[in-house]
Amino acid sequence: MHIISDEKLAKIMEDLDKIRQKSTNSSGTSSSKDTDYEVGDAYSAKDAIRPLVVTNCSEYVVAHARNELRPARQFAEVSMLPHILDTMRKLGLNRLLRLQSYTWPHLAGGAGHGAMIVGAPGSGRTFSYVPSVCHAVCKAIRESRSRPKDLEPGSWQQEQYGAKALILVPDLRRVRQVSALCHALLRKTYNEEWFTLTLNVPSTKSSEFFLRLLNGVGCLVATPAQLVWFWQEAPGLMRFPCLQFLVYDDVDLMSKEQLMNAQQVLQEILPITHSPQVVMVSQTYSPELMAKLSAVNHQPALVFGDIMEAALYGGTRIRISLVPSSAKVNAVIQMLQQRPPNDYRTVIYCVDDRDMQRLVVALKDQRYNCLPYYQNSDMEVREQVHSWQANSRGVILLCTDNCPELIIRDAHTLIHHGMSISWSKFKMRHLMLSGNLSNSLAAEVGPVKVSLHSLVLMDDSNHRELPRLVDFLQLHQEVDPGVVALAKRIRQEMDKARSEQKTLCSQILVLGKCYDSVCENRHHVTHSDRRPDYIPASGDVKVKLVQVYSPTHFCVRLLEHMPPQGTWKTLPYPAVQEMRMQLMLNNESPRYWPPVVGVICLYNTTFTKERVRVLKVAPIQNVNIVQSNLSVEVQALDADTRIFVTDCGRLFECPEAMQREPPMACDLRLLGLVPYSGERSWTEEDCRNVKGMLTQLPKDHFLQAKIQFATAGTLFVRNLVAIVYAGQFKVHLRHLNLAQKLIKSTLAKRCEEATNMILDFFEEVLIQEKEVEEEKEVQESKENAERETQEVVKNELEKNKGTILSGRCLRLAQVALEVGRDNQLQPKLQETRSTIRDASSNQVENYSGKTEEDAKPHSNEDQVSQLYECLMNCARLQLEDKKEPVKESGQVHSDPTEVLNQVVIPIQLPDNVVRPSVTYYQTTSTLELHVCLLEDDYEYQTMLLGSQLFFRATSKSSELIQQFILTLRFPIDKLRHHIRGRTVYISITKSLAYIVPLEFGEYSFLKPNHDGFGKMYDSRKSALKQLVRDLRDFGYSKPEAELQNKSDESEDEDRNLDGIERVDYNEIFD
């Protein structure tokens, strides 16, 4: 223990007199000022928590202690000071909540009566201890008012300094809430000038704070980091001899490091003569924390406002089973076989009475005795339920959530055949197990109780509840990885379907993890977080500062970019971009209705217009009724990146050209820098200091940063440097290194753990981006290889003379070479992706539903070799047909395709390769080919590759191969084909329905089907004649010559084609 010297104490008292004198002089001018709340953040009445503005209040509580706890039934049974009860009523606490009815009487027992309160946020946890703490503080103040008579007025009283109650909370926001609530309950307490009712820790060193501690404090509200800070500032000054309450509020949100550091300080400041009452408030139960509480309080209590938490504490095992709807009955029967109803009292929950009836029939078929409790059950069924509670005799009770009159607390097995309509109702189901929960605090060890089990059956109808259930169970037990992966996918699908586009949690972007249990922001990545093309992925950037949001978060505009191992490139100048945008905004735009999430629109104020993106839209009752006061959450894109809420009446449609323009503003964050104090958020004073640093830079400066990685609209950088140009020396100098400045001024510190967690959080997005970059590299390598091939061709032209293929044959050969090159590059790309997919392949395998055939690897080696062989053989066949003369090699061609036409390929045509006989004709919508094969035993293959048709047929009885390649010069939609006898019918559907000129003169094996063409022309001619007759009937007539000129404009020539052999579409296969 540190000892305060007389000189130091005298100096403290001298400073105290000065402060008291200042406060006395200022009391006459500002009598309304709260002198009890001067240190720390300013008091705001709106920070006081309204007790009944809650969402998770429960009418049922599970309370365990060494002895039986007796709850208070009404306010008259609560022993508290009148002004505290009156203030609570004014704040809205007009009825006694179940959670408070247990904690208030227990904490009123005095020293040794500690408690752990476990409940969901918004369940009244804070008001379960604050009134009791304030009541004890008021009593202590009254006792300390009877000071010794010989003590001079205004003098310091020994053994009365320090706080009466110390409340530790996880973050600064919680500090403001709890402090405001304590101040509201204590402000009517009779108080001396020298005593401070509620005190916070200032963000900077202040002697006034320590002097107030010496004079005495009612409630000191601080974070663990603040507690460590002021102990380090005055280590020998901080013994609290009168401490009566030590409260850990939201202890589960405090990190292990924070708790360990706070515990070291508490060992120094806690009183030596007695142990204070310890209260822990948590969302989840922790046996380690409960053991520490029991070590210092001989009468601990454990009060659960969350029934599901109580079930897990009492030894219940909760298991999730993913089964189809048709297999749920089998899963129930399997569970009953494992836990027979004769040994375990069993309750099955169903969705409704109809679901219950079907399950009862299925169970009775398996010879199980059932007791269904329907909505219309009478007193006779109620009597059967009472008898079942006394002795179940192997009977299974079935019910729904709409049976509050069933008071059952001694069940052993819960089977959730159907899920509840709400999360709170699902948790309340486990109240049926509460009578069998093990009490770890009981003075006498009872008999060993029967194991408890809760089985949750999930199917397609209730899978939306899976993500929340998985999140809850992961806090207490191991969950199957496959179930976790499925819950993640379901959450992503649900987010896409919602009418909101939530922003990422700010704590994740700074610390890599969110510690706020009621945070409404997004805590997972989506496809919208992928980096767009206009955001640089790496290298250095020069930026213009627009706004300072925090010491590590800024809004900037990009000026220049230098890629790795590159040079500076100027980006679109913001001023020019803004001028162009304003010119496009001159025209009036219509109102934007209805608002759609993700759409870019215009936000109009009195003087300006700016682009915004819609993030969240309030529910719309009728889209046909245009509203002006509908609440819409939007994010600015150009002026800055702020997020705000506005009315839809201020939103107007944005032209498509403006929507395609990239945003002018983006976010910039310093990666790995966290608050030095250990807090999870920055104070307003920290933001003001950093803003002053960046706004007071020299006039001719620029800001430069090195990119670590980038996401959608956000650059994560290692540092931000301000550089100025020294004209006298003609060099650039670093004027400010922001990261180094923050670390030296103890505003921030490097945290590698936060850096790694942020990188892990964005791992999926970064991997996807890497895959896209690798595909681009493969495409670039292909283009480079093509250029190299062209160079080789040119060189060969100069060296060799001989038999030359035509340009079309060469292009076919080149297609084969490209396919072969793709086949070589594909293993490399698959190898880079294999490491990514290996981790999740085992999890996805159980739920993907793929067949064994789909899982087999596909090899393209045989297909590629056959394609290449077909290409080369067809090229040789064409050369034999045309016998083209060799052009002079000295001739210069400007067209690259003419150069490619002169490739020297030796003709070595195999003897077993021939062309089949092919006839063709066309209609408006199709091109019909009839391929006549030599024998009936041929097997054929045909495919479309770009604009080229490949055909290959092989015989089973001989080695003869029939094949050809046909180049089509019109857009193609799809290919259909089938074989009948020795004829293969091929139908090629055109993308555009019109008659195209067929240039098949160079294909000697192709013969026109004159019957088909004749029938087509006859049908068109008859259609035209019918049109002329119709026009004459209407009194319209044109010269005969004009009609003949327009005779080819028939709309439908597919009629009256009887007798033409066409494709049988009933037997077509792809």
TrEMBL record:
Annotated coiled-coil segments of the chain: 768-798
Listed EC numbers: 3.6.4.13
Keyword Cell wall biogenesis/degradation part of the UniProt annotation: no
Domain DEAD/DEAH-box helicase: 99-288
Entry GO MF terms: ATP binding; hydrolase activity; nucleic acid binding; RNA helicase activity
Ranges of compositional bias, category Polar residues: 837-849
Record field: catalytic activity: ATP + H2O = ADP + phosphate + H(+)
Span of the signal peptide: none
Protein name stated in the entry: RNA helicase
Annotated Basic and acidic residues bias: 850-861, 1039-1048, 1056-1070
Enzyme class: hydrolase
InterPro entries associated with the record: DEAD/DEAH_box_helicase_dom, P-loop_NTPase
GO biological process: germ-line stem cell division
Region spans: Disordered: 826-861, 1039-1070
